[in-house]
Amino acid sequence: MESDRKKAVVLSSGGLDSTTAMAVAKNEGFDIFSLSFFYGQRHHHELKAAERVAAFFNVKKHLVIHTDLNKIGGSALTDDIDVPKSDDSVIKNEGIPVTYVPARNTIFLAYGMAWAEVLNASDIFIGVNAVDYSGYPDCRKEFIDAFEKMARLATKTGVEGTTALSIRTPLISLTKAEIIKLGTWLGVDYQITHSCYDPSEKGLACGRCDSCILRRKGFMVAGVKDPTPYISK
């Protein structure tokens, strides 16, 4: 019966990682409820990509939440701060970069937790990665474990013991190349995804921000053709 099918909330940015995480959830037999955010980010093209991804996976519902983190600022993605660019294919580890958005994943997961409780869904999928990640503290296993524990204490379903919410991070220990290989095996069309932090007005990837560098290197190492339209090669 339709009501007996298991449900998952999948946080979807329209990017490579979250789309692969959605493919994993779909492959495990979940009905997908896709959750995206307009948070004042400069790379709003990702929301168009999230719509494409939702259609690609035929999700049960795609919800877009508006939360104005640009009013808080503090990040190159939400404030008047330049996005770092490089002509080098190597990302230099210089601490937490300015593209980190304060408390973003905490806020996003809180919305996911609320929707999961209403849906009676036991799983939230998020495409965080702690191998080829860009130094973000909210992409680490320690953070995910702490949030999962909090979620079980903060929800009616958790306190009553009807649903033990799990935060699923299927990509957290994979390299970008391994993520691409996994997604390719699962049938993901990466042409519909968007990763760039600072795209052109037409949505072309800059090719030089940290996200573009990681993406390009991932496809190269995976031996998979990169379908991304870049401004510069």
Could you explain how this protein is built, in words?
The radius of gyration is 17 Å and the shape is globular. It has a single domain, classed as Rossmann fold (3-Layer(aba) Sandwich). 35% of the residues lie in helices and 11% in strands. It has 7 helices and 5 strands. It is of the alpha/beta class and 233 residues long. A 5-stranded parallel sheet has the order 3-2-1-4-5, with helices on both faces.
What is the assembly state of the chains in this entry? Answer: single chain
> Low-confidence parts, pLDDT < 50 over ≥5 residues?
none
CATH architecture label: 3-Layer(aba) Sandwich
User: Rg from C-alpha positions?
Assistant: 17 Å
Taken as a percent bin, the fraction of beta residues is: 5-15%
Strand adjacency order, main sheet: 3-2-1-4-5
Instruction: Report how far apart the termini are.
Output: 50 Å
Q: Indicate the structural class.
A: alpha/beta
Q: What summary fits the major beta sheet?
A: 5 strands, parallel
Shape: globular
How many separate helices? Answer: 7
The total count of strands amounts to 5
What is the helical fraction, as a range of percent?
Answer: 25-40%
Average residue pLDDT:
91
Overall tally of domains: 1
Q: Which homologous superfamily in CATH is the superfamily?
A: HUPs
The CATH topology is given as: Rossmann fold
CATH class type: Alpha Beta
How would you spell out the order of helices and strands?
EHEHEHEHHEHH
